[in-house]
TrEMBL record:
Region of interest: Disordered: 312-335
InterPro entries in UniProt: Acyl_CoA_acyltransferase, BioF2-like_GNAT_dom
Gene3D superfamilies membership: 3.40.630.30
Domain of life: Bacteria
Organism: Novosphingobium bradum
Coiled coil: none
Name of a matching Pfam family: Acetyltransf_6
This protein's name: GNAT family N-acetyltransferase
């Protein structure tokens, strides 16, 4: 299992992240592990309550996926985990599953192979920037005209700094800016600070601060790992909005991760916020899997509703009406 964890290339795949959720976010971990005779393994970091298994994650988590040893027989390992979970749970609800690496589809297939009734649907968007070897200047030249105009007109007023080690004074400024921003109260300040401290000690932290006349007005929390820059948090003081300090600080951090860290990808997390399209160039879907164990009576009402939806979908629509395709527990939507 140590080798499996050592291969992690994102915060959300590391034991430290899961431990932080347990310590600071009142989440109880449950780990499902399958091993093969050749030493390969697959791990589900989960939480479980009332017979329902969910990802070991919260609002800070960009995406969730099982960890599988490179070169392993992933379908067999995942199916073994699915079979074991069927003896312990009646329902599985997994979200923020990536599709670009095959995680969502392979999980759905493995759960079906182990007897679960599975429905999969898209539920979120992940905006990313493939750097493709460009310099920051080349990247910036390709940004939308209004963004470049804003930077030319206003960025000079904002003095930006990027810290790569944790600094208590800088973190206090971050917390003060966040509290004075449109975002209001932080969900779990203790979790976020512990994460920033650990990332700083490991050299992965990129904490940006923007100042006007020496006063901190914008702050952003990024980390760099495995060739990817992750944008975790960003905020600015409402009274400084007219100076676009957030835009100036994002540009400064982009310059750092592209020209200094030389990352391959910038990941702006989940959510289809319009401003993310100005900075990012691709949008990737994030999926949800709902799985039910047919033999458990607690599943029957859910399966009955899905069957009724399927029956209604097969009927011709009444004249003048329209409807969307219902979600079915066979992993497909009607064509």
């Amino acid at each position: 299992m140590a080798a499996l964890l050592a291969a992690a290339r994102a915060p959300f795949d590391r034991a430290e992240w899961w431990d932080g959720l347990a310590r600071h976010c009142d989440i109880t971990p449950r780990y499902a592990l399958a091993r093969h005779a050749d030493g390969s393994a697959a791990l589900f970091p989960l939480t479980c309550a009332g017979g329902v298994a969910r990802p070991l994650a919260n609002w800070y988590t960009f995406r969730w996926r099982p960890l599988v040893s490179p070169g392993a027989d992933a379908p067999a390992l995942l199916a073994a985990l699915g079979a074991d979970l069927a003896r312990r749970c009646w329902r599985i609800e997994l979200d923020h599953l990536p599709g670009e690496d095959g995680t969502a589809q392979s999980l759905a297939e493995a759960l079906r192979a182990s007897g679960w009734r599975v429905a999969m649907s898209q539920h979120d968007i992940n905006h990313v920037l493939p750097v493709a070897g460009r310099s920051h200047a080349a990247y910036l030249a390709a940004r939308p005209g209004p963004l470049r105009s804003t930077l030319k007109r206003k960025a000079g007023r904002v003095a930006c700094a990027v810290l790569t080690r944790f600094c208590p004074e800088a973190w206090a400024a971050y917390e003060a800016i966040y509290a004075a921003s449109w975002k209001g109260e932080e969900g779990s300040p203790a979790f976020l600070r512990a994460f920033a401290e650990a990332e700083g000690a490991a050299g992965r932290l990129r904490l940006g601060l923007g100042r006007i006349d020496g006063q901190p007005v914008a702050a952003q929390l990024w980390t760099v790992e495995g060739g990817t820059a992750f944008i975790h948090k960003l905020a600015y003081r409402e009274e400084a909005r007219a100076h676009s300090p957030g835009t100036a600080l994002t540009a400064a951090l982009m310059a750092h991760v592209i020209d200094t860290d030389r990352v391959d990808l910038v990941d702006f997390g989940t959510g289809d916020d319009p401003y993310k399209r100005d900075w990012m160039e691709q949008a990737r879907p994030r999926y949800r899997i709902s799985a039910l164990r047919p033999a458990d009576p607690r599943s029957w009402p859910h399966l009955a509703r899905a069957l009724a939806s399927k029956a209604r979908a097969a009927l011709p629509p009444r004249p003048g009406t329209a409807r969307g395709a219902p979600l079915l527990f066979d992993g497909q939507r009607p064509q």
